[in-house]
Write a structure and sequence with these properties.
The protein has 297 residues and is α/β, with parallel strands linked by helices. It contains eleven helices and eight strands. Strands 1-2-4-3-5-6-7-8 form an eight-stranded mixed β-sheet, with helices on both faces. Strand 5, helix 3 and strand 6 form a beta-alpha-beta unit. Helix 3 packs across helix 8. The relative contact order is 0.16.
């Protein structure tokens, strides 16, 4: 498996292209996953777009296959630090032009990354962004305090034997979904959730829902200077579509689309509908059929 070291952490990455796993120098799509997950749940989307794009997938530092180095356990796990990780990753892989496609917590990382790229005047040019299930939270002291307590319990209580429990994958994903997804995808997310570094999982969770995020993200959405598609799930209970609407209202360059009858994973719950929105925004036609999601048992 290919790895590249960024901020003392070997980052797993892969290319999904029309010729397999070798870059062809077509336009690049960079996929960013959300909290607790990995690039694995983006694979079917990337495969369906690979005839038009070279798709770069990677696991965030401390998540899934990008395991932390014991020599650097006290690194920063803020969203802006992960944005800087992406800057360094693209520079190391010699990607100078790209479109970003992100999900959930990854949408905030993408917004920080875009802001950093603009401020640093880096050689990386991003022409468009697709943000999936993202938005802007309003600060609520009591709600945030309750979220922190619950989050600490969720992160600390992750014994590996949970993976062996029947239906645990279905139970974990229940709150995220409105429509069923394949068992393989559910099990992959459960495995990634259990393997996430405690430092990375806790650090990103606390920073994603924080006063700092409340203070900075709205301005970063306002400052976006590229065409941006923001997709919300109608029945998303993690980041409700109203939060996406608030973000889109800050900037006329943001097109907000709400997908009906899906929750927090529209790319898995309704892959055909999701790909239709993405292809329309990117200006490409379907040249291959979407990869089957698998059994929905």
């Amino acid at each position: 498996m290919p790895f590249i070291t960024i901020r003392h952490c070997p980052h797993y990455y892969e290319w999904i292209t029309a010729v397999g796993q070798q870059r062809t120098h077509r336009p690049v799509l960079v996929f960013i996953h959300g909290w607790g997950g990995s690039a694995r749940y983006w694979e079917s989307t990337a495969q369906a777009l690979a005839q038009n794009f070279d798709c770069l997938l990677y696991d965030l530092r401390g998540f899934a296959r990008s395991q932390l180095s014991p020599q650097n356990p006290h690194d920063r796990y803020t969203l802006d630090a992960y944005g800087e990780d992406l800057v360094q990753l693209l520079q190391a892989l010699q990607v100078d032009t790209a479109t970003v496609i992100a999900h959930s917590m990854g949408t905030s990382i993408a917004v920080y990354f875009l802001q950093q790229s603009a401020i640093q005047q880096s050689a990386i040019q991003v022409d468009r962004a697709i943000l999936t299930c993202g938005g802007i939270f309003e600060y609520d002291e009591r709600a945030f305090a309750a979220f922190y307590r619950f989050g600490q319990w969720v992160v600390k209580f992750r014994p590996r034997w949970l993976y062996q429990l029947p239906e645990m994958d279905r139970l974990l994903m229940q709150r995220f979904l409105h429509r069923p997804i394949g068992k393989r995808d559910r099990q992959a997310f459960l495995e990634d959730y259990l393997n996430a570094s405690e430092a990375a999982a806790m650090g990103t969770l606390l920073d994603a829902v924080s006063q700092h995020a409340i203070d900075t993200l709205p301005q970063h959405f306002t400052d976006l200077s590229i065409p941006t598609l923001l997709i919300s799930g109608q029945h998303d209970r993690i980041i409700p579509p109203t939060l996406g609407q608030k973000a889109a209202a800050l900037n006329p360059r943001i097109l907000h689309q709400m997908m009906p009858q899906v929750g927090h994973f529209p790319m898995l719950e309704d892959p055909e509908g999701y790909l239709a929105l993405v292809r329309s925004f990117l200006g490409v036609e379907s040249v291959i059929q979407p990869i089957p999601v698998g059994d929905r048992g």
